[in-house]
Structures are given as C-alpha cells and as structure tokens.
Amino acid sequence: MVRFGHRDMTASGRYPPQPKFQPFAFYSAVRLGDLEQLKLIASTDPYFLTQDNGAGAPIHFAVTYKQLDMIHWLIREVPECVNLRDSKGFTPLHRAAYLAQFDGYLEIFEYLLSEGADPAIECEDYDPYLNPGRKTPARLVDKDVEVRERIEELIEKYAHVEKRAEPHPALSDWWALYDYGLDEVRTWAKDFKKTFPEDRRRDKARAAKAQFKERRRVKRAEIEAEIEAEIAERREKGAPDFTKNLGMTEMMPGATDSATAPQPARFAFLFPGQGSQAIGMLADDKLLELPAVAKMCEVAREVLGYDLREICVNGPKEKLDDTVYAQPALLLANLAALEKLKDQDPDVVNACDACAGLSLGEYAALVFAGVLSYEDAFKVVKARAEAMAAAAREGSHGMLSVVGLDDDALKTIVEESKNEVIASSPDCVLEITNFLFPQGRVLSGDKVALDVAQRRAQAAGAIKVAFLAVSGAFHTKRMESAKEALEKALSEVTFNAPRANVAIYSNVTGLPMTAKDADGVRASLATQLVSPVMWEQTLKNLIGDGKTKFFELGPNSQIKSMTKRVSLDVWREMKGVQA
C-alpha cells in the first residue's frame, strides 16, 4: 500500500543500502540549483529524481527555493512530476500558490501551468482544525484577494494547455522506484492498484489471524456449551445438604421443612492464592480502625516474629514475592478484605454459606467458615511457607502457565517432554497441577522438563506459555518433605465445626469438604500440597449449586479473570474487595 508516496515497510525486514552521499546532499543540490552535483549523486547512489524523503520530491524543493532552472530540468527529465503530490497532497502548483505573496513565485506558478500542471487537483485536508477542507491551489490563498485574483488570471490564461495526468503515488516512493525502476513506475496510472510483496504478506497474516480468531470463537462456544451442560447436571442433582456434614439430622429450632424453607443464599466468598500479592496491600490506615484487622496484625507479628504489614505496604517486592513472606502476607490481606466487607455489608457476610480458596487461599476460607482461628491459621501458614520454600531449594523446579490447549494435547506434551529428558533425568517430575479454567492449566515440575514442555506447547499453538514467578514445583511430589512438616503443624492446631450450613469447597476434589471431620480436613490440606488444584471444577460446582454471586476477597482480580472463562453471567455480577 502506498499513501502520499511511501510504502509501509514496517516489519518487512528490508533496509535501504547505505549511500555514499547522504539525502541532505541530494536535496541540497536541488535547493542550490547545482545540476552537476545532482547528476553525480544520482549516478553514484540509488537516488531518484522523483523520490520523496518526507518533505517533498526534488521538484517540490526546487519550487520552494525558486530554482526555476532546476524545475525546468526536472520536468524535462520526468514530465509526470509536474503534478506529483507530497505528504500533504500538495503539487508543485500548490507550493507555488502557497508562497505566491513572495517575489518570484507567481512566475514559477505560471511556468508550471505552461508545462501542464493541473490547477484542479485538490490537496489533502491536512489541517482540519485551523484550515479544514481539501483545496485547489487557488483556494489556498482565499484570504489574500490580490494574489487570488492574479492566480485565477493565470489559470484562465493557460486553460488551453493540455493538463498532464496525475502520476501514481509510488512515483515518489524510494522503495517502489528501487524495486521496479523509474521507467516502469511512471507507466502506472494514478488509480492502478499495485500489490507489493509486503502487502501480500500482511494480507496473509491478517487472514490467518482472522481464521485463528474464528477457530477460537467456535472452540470457546463449544467449551461454554460443555460448561453449561456440566453446571445444569450439577443443578439437577441438587445442592448437598450441609446440615448432614454437621451431624444436624434433626430440624433445628425455628426451622421449617424443605417445602417452606427460604431459598439458600447465592453468595460465595473466594480467596486468592500465592501470586496475587502486591506491594501496597493494607496500606490504608483506616483498616487498622477495624479492631479485628488491628488484632490480626498484632497476632501475625507475634507468630511470625516480624512486622508483616510493613512488608505488605513497603516491600521490597523481592521479599514480598518470597514464599516465606508471600503466603502469610496474602493470608493477612485476604482476611483483612473479609473484615472490610463485614464492615461495609455485614448482611452479605452473614448470608454467605459457601466459600473456597485457591491453594493458599483455602486457609482464609477455613477462617471465614470458623473452622480455624486466625491465630492458628497464621501458625499453620508459617510452617507451610517455610517448608515449601525449603523443598523448593532442593533442586531446580518451577511452574509453567499454559493457555489455549485442551487437556488431551497437554497430557501428550507432558509425556513427550518427560520422555525427552528421561535419559538425563530418570526421576524427572512434570505434572498438570492447576486446573484453573477451561484450557487454562499450570504445569509443575523440574526445570529441565518444563523447558521442553514450553517449547512443545508453543509449537502446538498455545495462546500463552509463561513461567510463573515461583521457584518450586508446587502441588507435586517434590513437595513431599513440605507435606510432612505441614501435617505436623496441622496436628498442633484446633479444627472447629464450621458455622451452620457453610460449605467449604476443597481444592483437591472441587467438592464441599465434610467439615465436621477434623482429621479429614487436615488430610485434605496436606494432600493439597502434593495434588492438583481443581479450581475450574470448584467454580463449576459452586455455580451448579446455585452460588452465582461471587465475591473475591483479596488483592488483584485473578480469580475474577478465571471466572470469566467459566461463566460470563457470574463474572458480570462478581465483586471484589481488596484491603
């Protein structure tokens, strides 16, 4: 595509040759009327008599600097240039008219008319605010009546002269002249549609992108249909009776039977996990006016031995992102967000009867449900974070986010990647460990295998493949040593029965825990450390159980982004509370 004399060579990979004479010398020869120097430069380097360097072609320079002899010579060499347009759409006649109030330019205007310059050509609307509209040369000087009248007289005087055709825009383009030669380009009519190689490449890329988007749209529609069917199936089964989990087989005083019982609340509280932390959490001093938040900060300091809020507020980032500090910090931020919502809308908190947390976030969910006190939660999370960090240091591990591949394709990539490195790493670990949303998965394992998986996933057409900012193979057997330390910490704290009818959805199964079974909850939390996180299934089950008003309690909005891939309707109503 050529517009105003310039082909778009962006990202074409082509660069013009380095000339002996710089463009300044070429255009200075025109400006100074040095014909011999102009011929020398043009014969030495690939300069062309009609090329536009962005400020006009040689004939525009010759008009601007009143080089009548040079104008004459250029028109003799390339007659088509008499109507050549610059980046504003100015022909040489426009330039002469624009400067006609100065001495010598009316004579140049007259000479150009005698050579077939067309006074009917309009320039572009180059100044739509101060001087709007496309204009002929005569209209450029509307405000100068004397000059306008003189120009109109000259136009009428040379009306009988045959007007030369306006040339193709490529006549001023260096690349077109270089690739096809002046003799060919000058034969192209103004409206000739020349398709250049870079245009074909861009058209092909646009078509491929459009096809990709259409395939993605169709696939997305298929996934949404599958999700809706799965949620509908869950709803047909009916929401579980959580009173059974608490051993409440008899009707509570004041309760009604199922025929007259009010509909259960649709609220669900979701707590984010490691990776959502950010400097500036709990920076609002008003949070400390909430007694529970102030008490949490004190307890965190006592349990951890340092000022956790200071790290949340001021970092540094490297420290906050360290697992040892990130997990307690995120627990504090999640619980502070819960207290903030209690202060803002206590009715919602009292009515909420379902919760879940992503990995680490599960501990905040247990505190909300009344299963753990926040004192015990800090003790367990401290042990968990330290144990996971220690396990991560035993080798080179990591986690890789992969978006845009179905599970079968990803499982194949995992197996092929492990087979590729098995000779050098026979005990290699590589697993799909986070099922976050449809076609949104996280691989965990040894770095050598993750590198291969990254390459294979990209080759398979994944939309996004990126390493996470963690150093451990979380939720794999590489965390077995951490699991043992966590089990010890869990055995030393008290697990209570949850508040009445509050369902806590497990990361391990995606289903509600049997919360009255303290040993079962302990086992689930320990198993979570070495097992995949079934977050997509958790969201689907929550929606299937009628929980369609989600609250994300904690920093950032990663859970909301995941929810969008599961249910647009729920995502639209979802709210976030950050502390």
End-to-end Cα distance: 52 Å
Q: What is the approximate shape?
A: elongated
What integer is the average pLDDT? 90
Q: Main beta sheet: strand number and arrangement?
A: 5 strands, parallel
- Tell me the domain tally: 3
Query: In percent terms, what proportion of residues is strand?
Result: 5-15%
So, the CATH homologous superfamily of the largest domain? Malonyl-Coenzyme A Acyl Carrier Protein, domain 2
Oligomer: single chain
Helix- and strand-based class? alpha/beta
Uncertain segments: 241-262
> If strands are numbered along the chain, what order do they take across the biggest sheet?
9-4-3-10-11
Helix content percent band = 40-55%
Number of helices: 25
Measured on Cα atoms, how large is the radius of gyration?
37 Å
What is the CATH architecture term of the largest domain? 3-Layer(aba) Sandwich
CATH topology of the largest domain: Malonyl-Coenzyme A Acyl Carrier Protein, domain 2
Number of strands: 11
